[in-house]
Amino acid sequence: MRRRGYLRGVLAGGITSVVAGCLGGTGGSSGRTDGSSGGSGGTVDSLPAPVQGDPEAGVTVQVFEDYACPHCRQYEEDVLPKLEADYVDPGTIRYEHHDFPIPVDDRWSWVAASAARGVQDHVGDAAFFEYTHALFEHQSEYSLSLVASLAGDVGADGETIREAADAQTYRPVLEADRELGLQMGLDGTPEVYVDGEQTADHAYETIASAIENARS
C-alpha cells in the first residue's frame, strides 16, 4: 500500500496544522518538529534539484521522495537501478530528485533529506545520488553518526554533513520542493512525473512506458 492514504489523512485529518506549518512559511527553520537545536549556522534558502542523466535531454523525469518512506526505499532498490541502466546512463532522460517530507517520520524525513542536500551542495550531484542510495539502504538505522559516516564514503566531510543534518540547514529547500509537489498534485511518495505528467504508479514498466511515449 502506498503512502497516498497516509497523506490524505494528514491533509484532511487531525494533524493538518503540522502540514500547513511545514508548507506555509518561507524561513524554513520555524515549525521544527524533530527536537533538534537548529544550530547556529543559518539556513540555505535555494538549491537546484539534483540531476543525473543528460541535463539537456528531451524528456524530464521528476521523482518526489521521503527518506523515511519504506515505499521510497523499495523504489530506490528495485526501480531506479533499472531506470538508470536503461535511460539515465545512456543520457535519454533528465532525472530530477525532489524532496517531499510527508513526513513519514517527524525527525528523519527532514534530517536525512537535509544531510543529502548538504552532500549535493558540498560535493555535487553525482555524490548526492550515491549518498541517497546509501541512506535508503540503511533506512532502518538512521542516526547522526550514520549520516556522517556515509557522507565520508562519497567524498564529503562527515562532520559538516552531520551539522547540516542536525541543524536542518536545507529545510527551506525541502519545504519549497514539498510545496512544488503539492502544486503538481502529488498525493503520495514515491511519486513520478514524466514531462510534468503524473504516472499511474511507480512501477518500472509504467515509468518506462511513459518515457517512451514522451519520446515519440
Structural write-up:
The protein has about 220 residues and is of the alpha+beta class. It has one domain: Glutaredoxin (3-Layer(aba) Sandwich). The chain has helices at about 5-10, 15-25, 70-90, 110-125, 125-135, 145-155, 160-165, 170-185, 205-215, and strands spanning about 50-55, 60-65, 95-100, 190-195, 195-200. The protein has a five-stranded mixed beta sheet with strand order 1-3-2-4-5. A hairpin with a 2-residue loop joins strand 4 (about 190-195) and strand 5. Helix 1 packs across helix 2 (about 15-25) and helix 6 (about 145-155) crosses helix 7. The radius of gyration is 16 Å and the shape is globular. About 40% of the residues are buried. Residues about 1-40 have low confidence and may be disordered.
Secondary structure category: alpha+beta
| Strand order in the sheet with the most strands | 1-3-2-4-5
Query: What is the straight-line distance between the termini?
Result: 32 Å
- Strand segment tally: 5
CA-atom Rg in angstroms: 16 Å
> Shape from CA axes?
globular
Features:
single chain, 11% strand, 216 residues, 5 strands, disordered N terminus
Q: What topology emerges from the helices and strands here?
A:
Blueprint: H1 4-12, H2 16-24, E1 51-53, E2 59-65, H3 70-88, E3 93-99, H4 108-123, H5 125-137, H6 144-153, H7 158-167, H8 171-183, E4 191-194, E5 197-198, H9 204-215
Parallel strand pairs: 2-3
Antiparallel strand pairs: 1-3, 2-4, 4-5
Helix pairs in contact: 1-2, 4-5, 4-7, 6-7
